[in-house]
Target: NADH-ubiquinone oxidoreductase chain 4
Amino acid sequence: MITLILSTTGAIISTWAAPKNKIWNISIAQVSIIFFISCFLYSGTNNIYWNYLSSILATDSLSTPLIVLSCWLMVVTLLASINSVSNSSALNQRMFITFNLVILIALIITFSSTNLIMFFIAFEATLIPTLLLISRWGMQKERIEASYYFVFYTLISSLPLLIGLIVIYLNDHNTNIVLIFWNPSLLVSPTLTLFCIVAFLVKVPIFSFHLWLPKAHVEAPVAGSMILAAILLKMGGYGFIRLYSFFWAPLTNNITPFLVFFCCWGGVLTSLICITQTDLKSLIAYSSVSHMSFMIAGVATGTEWGLKASIIIMIAHGIVSSALFALANLFYERSGTRTLLINRSLKATIGLLPLFWLIFVVANLGLPPLPNAVGELLAFSSIFNWSIISYFPISLGVVLTSIFSLSVYQFLNSGWAHKWNVINSNINERENLMITLHFIPLIGLIFAPNFIS
Model:
């Protein structure tokens, strides 16, 4: 962990020391090296127990895939951002890359911290650089409103979590995740549980806590959208799983009966909202809310299948949602709009895009044997086992997810091109590499699922 953190810090320093014409080359090369270093974390994760354990940092089979996903995402995020940021001043370029790398450091500490207070600080540390990415490099004036939503939703929900962690510390004089797992507190109550989990439910987010997400996604630059969808949403799921064993009794007895049904029906309602969307990025953002709602419902059942399903869904969704935002950005850079109707039939001039869209759209709707399908089957099985009544909202959610996913493909890759969107520019090597770097891990997880389960 210390190696990864120091390597990322070195990448920030070299970004400011690099000559103007080499900023992106040096940054992407260094982040790629950081990703390869992070892959060595798998050398110790042969079981479910803690590895590389120290007084403040450690990894296990839950945190290791998320750390590797974070390091991988930074490579494709910087690749996707070159076209939109490289025309600005050298100072702007360096600041943009620095904010992304600061987010990476915060993510590594969040996923590897063994102390709940440090986890909370790193959890909230991603707020400021993400806010700056949205407000400074967003495309439209509505980005200021989106920033307000993002800040106030996150801060208001995080205050109860901070109060809950302070109460736990004052009572037990201990906030170590490893020790708490073996020695649960006697202080746990339904009120304290709600205080602690609401921050994670907003960060995921589930339906009704999601209003900040579409605004932030739509107004953020492509880097902000990819980081939000692929990683920052997973921090909520990670925190919820981490604290689940600590709050086992009040969750299973008092909160789970409401939370599971609320998440299942929330996923259905969000899928309905997706069908009505005309903005491509907004549609992808709402689909993330739908998938994450079903993921939280699976975890809330408290079964081993639900836990494994949540990890698989988080990793698979991180790859697929990042790819969808990257593809949406390719269209936006060429047409100047995110409206589905206007972007119709760009495939007439950009030959490989229909194939890329087909792969990631069917992954998003959960077609076997892609990892999304495996995770959702496990999650749905655990929810059915918990309550057979949930069969109806889940089946309805699956149908609606298929409808809006295939509608996106049909809208963007069929019909005749309109006169206003005939664009003679095929995708270049950088964009091909960016999509291929999403495609390889998605297909690789079909043959090596043990990396995330």
Observations:
- The mean pLDDT is 85.
- The longest helix spans residues 304-335.
- The chain has one domain: 2-451.
- Residues 2-451 form one domain.
